[in-house]
Amino acid sequence: MYIQRFYLLKELNYPVITTIYVQLEFEKGHADSRDYFLNLVGSGEIYPYPLEIDDLVEMANIPKSKQASDAELSCFVVAKRLGAKAMTDDKNAIDYIQRYVSMPPGSVITLFDILFEGYLTSWLFDHELRSIQATLSAKKFNFQYEDLAHECARRRWMAGE
Length: 161
Fold this sequence. Notes:
By secondary structure, the protein is mainly alpha-helical. The protein is built from 9 helices and 4 strands, in the order αβααβααβαβααα. Strand 3, helix 6 and strand 4 form a beta-alpha-beta unit. The two termini are 30 Å apart.
């Protein structure tokens, strides 16, 4: 929402689905986040995906914890079932859920992964990464890298691209 780059998911061929638990979490949140999310759902940019009984059973078999919400857990369970990727930046949730939900390597991605992929495919450039980092930093969302553009360039060079 803050960086205005939702289009990047579509350009990188990531269909965006969500669960009822994510929607409920947004409905309880700040009005601007809730409205942004509901507009994306209403426009078809985000598709509400139904949970199946097996998903709910798997979720029920995982001990409740403050480390992971039902919203995060439901996304992991659906991603596992579909052979898709789950996206979150909550390291605690990732570590906790992966103790109980077996997911293949690379099936959990973060905002950094999306931005890096956007950089590799020339959807984003250095100046945009720096602007994104500054915007997110002002909202108290910090990457582990001091300079996002430098880190993306370094990784691209290391990968030989």
